Amino acid sequence: FGTLFGWFAAVFAGLSVLTRAIASHRGPYSNMYEFSLAFVFVLVLSYMLFERFYEVKQLGAIVMTIALGMSLYLWSLPARMREVDALNPALQNRPLMTVHVSAAIISYSTFAVSFAAALLFLFQMRRQVSWLPSTEMLDDIGYRAVTVGFPMLALVLILGSVWAHRAWGSSWSWDPKETAALFTWLVYGVYLHTRSLRGWRGQRSAIILII
Description:
mainly alpha, 7 helices, globular
């Protein structure tokens, strides 16, 4: 039943994104309401695909809770954000905006899966619970999720720099959003570096993923 309701959530969240795109005649990425709507869809879909591929359902306890939190955040946003407004001049590069924001949504969604895997890894390492996946499988899920999200976030930084240069004449301004994205990318870069070149596995890698 949990899997069934998960797929229902993915389908209906996808329909909400689709109808929003039809109403606005563009990708639904212009404000936090639209971004969060798309994020919930991709987050749920990412988790369901990992569940299907690995046949592991326990990650849903964390990932679906994050999706629920984002859904509650959606409801808390001002009603004016739900209106379909024209794009401001800085956002009117639609192809670039669509790819840039889509890559961001994919990266953060898969990072949420890796975060869940890391939390369960640490719990399983200490408690050895019979109904949880093995630590080896959880470690692999976290790694596979990062291998999807890391290049997507790199694409976000590159396209964001190009977009900023075209819109404002400066490729980088160290605003909070840019800085946070760069810091996040560096953290996952440390994770991949220590795993591939230093041979880090298990607890140390899981701690980096939680950070």
